[in-house]
Specification:
Shape: globular
Keywords: Signal
Number of strands: 10
InterPro entries: DUF2911 (IPR021314)
Pfam families: DUF2911
Protein name: DUF2911 domain-containing protein
């Protein structure tokens, strides 16, 4: 009988220890900052409110353009879930019409010359893994330019449009 009680106590102690270890491990994991936190920016442009919601990765010493993000390939324009672009009214992006709505927002980076800016009808996507060009609502091209270093990807909105800034690149997009 004593052996059974002793064994029962050992099992309970082992379970309690395992539970405590899991609790501490989980608590420590919660202290770690998110690598690419979600962020968003909104502003008034051409009478419309535009909102860009995106995952904001950091450079972390990596080669971004032509490295982490390949030239000539569709990119989700942020991290994790695809970036979304919402406009409350119809606008003109680089002179072309875009209806009010929420879109998946993608870019095709270029080493030099023009970048392709894409507004896709499928707003909720994970990355660009299931991106379908047939679902594009609008494609325009813009010239990327050199900018001051930005460790974390950020979007800005101004009265003239919006820009992506990351690493040493700025991708300005005009909106009217």
């Amino acid at each position: 009988m004593r052996t059974i009680m002793k064994r029962s106590f050992q099992i309970k102690a082992a379970l309690l220890f395992a539970f405590a270890l899991l609790t501490v491990t989980f608590a420590k994991a919660q202290d770690k900052p998110i690598a690419s936190p979600r962020d968003s920016v909104s502003g008034k442009v051409a009478g419309s409110t535009i909102t860009i919601n995106y995952g904001s990765p950091s450079v972390k010493g990596r080669k971004i353009w032509g490295g982490l993000e390949a030239y000539g390939k569709v990119w989700r324009a942020g991290a994790n879930e695809a970036t979304t672009f919402t406009t409350t009214k119809a606008i003109k992006v680089e002179g072309k019409a875009l209806a009010a709505g929420t879109y998946g927002f993608f870019l095709i980076p270029a080493e030099s010359g023009t970048w392709t800016v894409i507004f896709n009808k499928v707003a909720k996507q994970w990355g660009a893994f299931k991106y379908d060009e047939k679902q594009d609502a609008l494609r325009v091209t813009v010239k990327g330019k050199t900018a001051a270093k930005h460790e974390r990807l950020v979007y800005t909105v101004s009265a003239k449009g919006f820009s992506l800034l990351w690493d040493t690149v700025e991708v300005p997009v005009s909106v009217k």
